[in-house]
Design goal:
Elements (H helix, E strand, L loop, with lengths): L13 H13 L12 E5 L3 H12 L3 E5 L11 E2 L6 E2 L4 E2 L6 H9 L3 E3 L5 E4 L5 E2 L1 H15 L12 H8 L7 H12 L24 E3 L4 H8 L4 E2 L4 E5 L5 E5 L2 E5 L1 E4 L3 H6 L3 E3 L4 H9 L1 E3 L1 E7 L10 E4 L6 E7 L9 E7 H7 L4 H16 L8 E4 L12 E3 L7 H7 L6 E3 L12 H19 L2
Parallel strand pairs: 1-2, 1-14, 2-10, 7-18, 11-15, 14-23
Antiparallel strand pairs: 3-4, 5-9, 6-9, 7-8, 11-12, 12-13, 16-22, 17-20, 17-21, 18-19, 19-20
């Protein structure tokens, strides 16, 4: 599922009306609330949990949100310690036309900037500047291959295996390794385990992409207003064997009529929450077979900028997935003197065992090859470690070898009309996105609301 140009389904008409109705249902601050005597425990204060909690509370439910971290937002997590809003998780609204996050962002006071992929400069080894024509030619060929490779895919083989067999000349081409890394691994997952049949699955909203400039956590803060949220509460057990559901958190037990689980797929994979009775086999199978990507982000600042005044800088080293793409923050935050770069998949996981000095050394080796040995070290570094983060164990879901699209729907299935699930990994059309997570929360809230009328 490529979020820049590949399969841009505009979804005109319906999503715009849909967005208006979503906001009407989720942002009515003054609507009178009539208690209905039912309690819902929402596990996780990410955007899916907050969206559900807000809607349920507006419908008269008593809602208790349990969050393991010290603040709301989940993977919408913003670090402002450098004076720059560094989004550790999501950074972009992918496709602003009809996207529910677009309108919600306006309501929340979130500011954004249109990032243009074509505003770029590409460098090869030795600081050799790559021509726009050469880059564009490879990019066009890349998208053509993406549009057809799934027809020759194999249910038991990963994308990398099929691609290398069909296009061996590109396997060791540095520009092609960059395109595969930044245009596919970034958006999906490890190429050797990415499904060669399902890598392009999922819908996309049309329009341009916008990067958030004042912090994606603005949405979480907005949605959390007026909710009963208990922070630093790690859930370890959910017992839904009786009429009331019991949730154990920090050695305390809280009971409710319904429980909505919105923890990331990585947490479900890690089995850190005990379910009694055990989850149905089809749900366990889905948890096991859907992949969990890892993307780590690195923000570096300097006293002065030394790089080209373009939106994106690309570098094509021999090693794939390694600090090969740089976002120039100066283009939307003048005088920030900052670059953000990325590591993907296995190399992303490898960085988590590296010291700050080692990370800086690897990044600077690339920048000095691009701009000369006199380039100074950064004054500050911020970084993420999503794979070893016990609140996520990864970044977002993807279609791995063994994944079937029904697995996303299996994850969304309620159990005994008491146990419900939300999160980006439960949204078959919009998995791995913020808008998918948001929509899943509203979807599950509607399921619970409908039970009172049945």
């Amino acid at each position: 599922m490529h979020r820049r140009q590949f399969i841009q389904n505009t979804l005109t008409g319906l999503p715009i009306l849909w967005t208006s109705s979503l906001l009407a249902s989720s942002c009515q601050q003054d609507e009178a609330i009539s208690p209905n005597g039912k309690t819902v425990i929402v596990i996780g204060a990410g955007i899916s949990g907050l969206a559900a909690a807000k809607k349920l509370q507006e419908k008269g439910f008593t809602v208790i949100v349990l969050e393991a971290q010290e603040k709301v937002g989940g993977r919408l997590r913003t670090n402002r310690s450098t004076g720059i809003a560094f989004d550790e998780g999501a950074s972009w609204i992918h496709g602003i036309t009809g996207n529910p996050i677009t309108a919600l962002a306006q309501q929340a006071g979130m500011t954004t900037f249109h990032t243009r992929d074509e505003n770029r400069k590409s460098y090869d080894l030795g600081g050799t500047s790559r021509t726009t024509a050469a880059y564009d030619k490879a990019e066009d060929a890349f998208y053509e291959i993406l549009g057809s490779l799934m027809k020759r895919g194999n249910a038991t083989q990963g994308f990398e295996t099929v691609f290398n067999r069909l296009y061996p000349a590109y396997a060791n081409d540095r520009l092609w390794k960059f395109l595969l890394s930044t245009y596919l691994t970034f958006d999906c997952g490890d190429l050797d385990t990415l499904s060669s049949l399902l890598y392009d699955e999922g819908e996309e909203f049309g329009g341009v992409d916008h990067i958030v400039t004042n912090g994606y956590d603005t949405l979480a803060t907005y949605l959390a207003k007026g909710l009963s949220i208990q922070l630093n509460q790690r859930v370890t057990k959910i017992d839904y064997s009786a009429k009331k559901v019991s949730v154990t958190h920090n050695s305390t037990v809280t009971s409710g009529d319904y429980v909505l689980v919105t923890v990331p797929l990585g947490v479900l994979k890690a089995n850190t929450i005990q379910f009694t009775p055990a989850l149905p086999a089809q749900k366990q199978n889905a948890i096991q077979n859907i992949g969990m990507n890892c993307v780590n982000k690195f923000l570096l600042t300097w006293n002065t900028a030394f790089w080209d005044n373009v939106q994106y800088l690309s570098y094509t080293p021999e090693i794939r997935d390694k600090f090969n793409y740089f976002l120039n923050l100066n283009t939307f935050r003048p005088a920030a003197n900052s670059l953000m770069t990325f590591a993907y998949a296995r190399y992303a996981r490898q960085t988590e065992s590296m010291t700050d000095a080692q990370v800086v050394g690897e990044i600077m080796a690339h920048l000095r090859d691009m701009y000369g040995t006199g380039v100074p070290n950064p004054t500050q570094l911020l970084r993420t470690r999503w794979q070893t983060n016990s609140n996520s164990f990864g970044s977002y879901s993807y279609t791995a070898v063994g994944t079937e699209m029904r697995h996303f729907e299996d994850l969304a299935e309620a159990v005994n009309d008491r146990l419900f699930f939300a999160g980006e990994h439960t949204e078959v059309d919009y998995f791995s996105t913020v808008h998918g997570a948001y929509l899943s929360g509203l979807r599950e809230a509607d399921k619970i609301i409908d039970l009172l009328g049945s």
